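Handout, section B. The chain below has 495 residues.
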Amino acid sequence: MYQEHPIDLIWDESSPIDANVMGILTRAGFSPRSMGAAAVAQYVESNGFGPCVLCMHRRELPDIQMIRTLKQHYGAKIYLVLRVDPSDLESTVEAIKCGVDDVIADGSDQQAKWEKIAGLAKLRLLKNDSYVFVDETSQHLLALVERVGAAEVTALMYGPTGSGKEVLARLTHDFSPRRDGPFVPVNCAALPEALAESLLFGHAKGAFTGATRSTEGFFTQAQGGTLFLDEIGELTLPLQAKLLRAIQEKEVLPVGSSETQRVDVRIVAATNRDLRAGIRAGYFREDLYFRVSTFRINVPGLSARLDDILPLANYFLVKHGREDRVLQLSPEAAAKLLAYTWPGNVRELENVVQRAIVLSNDGVIAGNHLVFDEPADHELYAREPMPMDNVHAFEPASVQRERWRDAQGAATNPFTAHLGAPTAFEEPAEEGSDNSSGLQGAMDANEFRIIVDTIKNTRTRQEAADMLGISQRTLRYKIARMRERGIQIPKRRSA
């Protein structure tokens, strides 16, 4: 399946791979090479390699943080296997936390283990080379998707627009026994109401004016594979009823036909709407909700996956850049990307990178090349760019961002007090302060204080959102930001 895209298999000479296993991997399409530790480092630093499985021994790494650096900068290209001393449990756990893809104990080159590594590496490095799972949250999400994919249950992806729900749906398919069958994505929000039934279930010849021949619907096209129903909350109630029957009975009735057709299709759905609220409001069927959400997967926004931001940005630089020019982010640009809140998530990040490529002339993306979709946020962050010496390559993005914010305005930051008393709010910085970070902090403090008071005096999150004049989704986002800062969210008022 992947023979046209060979994968380099690199291992340091201190960690040889069993010859029998090597033969299996070679026949599976891997291109094996053995190098000394110094050559491996040079090979990685060159940044000119294709997808590879990199097998190194823990003792050859100068610092465990090197794992995080490798995954951050080359996550889309490297599947990192770490050979460890089985007695060194602490080091093994630390390596896994830093993002290593797999661990092999010394002297345990079992064929089954390497076959599993080979399969996962192919999926992630080749077919899904645009997928980035560096952040710990993303890694947990990937592990969950892998298990759900293998289980063949219906799944509902819930998350904000642009967060990568379709990417995860494709992975669910790739991890399933149906991986060799078709994956058919359908944007339910884009289905014309008059043609939606025909597009989903097909139609017979003569069913309506212009139907000169019988046509298969999306269900039939997905036979033996996966049907991805994106934005399922946008379907009309009559169409929801017909969709429910198709899922329950595993058969469809084409428009204008009297004969049903059996279908063998796995359903994965996605939405950015609160379908439970839709049930209460009467625009979504409860029975359909439970039918498509056997397993619900919550997909967090990009602001909750900070360690994915720079790897994704680097991937988009390669994807949209010219083949004759290597593009890289300046420390200032990296700092701004980490500081931004990304209301448009991964889709917005890709747009920002594309704009920066257009504006860049010398191969380096500078801070002033980044044009964000939220000008107010951009201006606030642009006032105090992160000093270049504050960008630490071996630290996760979350640490980098906090280091920057602490360096800018620790003295006047109203949230400094939360370290000792999580629920306390200090007064905003004095008017006229020369610290823009303090200004932003003061604005946040005032907003968060209002939110806390509102939650205390309302019974439900929807009631709180209505009182604040914002959507429930926006309220959830702001609560998440507050929790990141260590602010305790009060319990809602009892009825």
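Note. DSSP finds 20 helices and 14 strands in the chain. Compare this with the example in section A.
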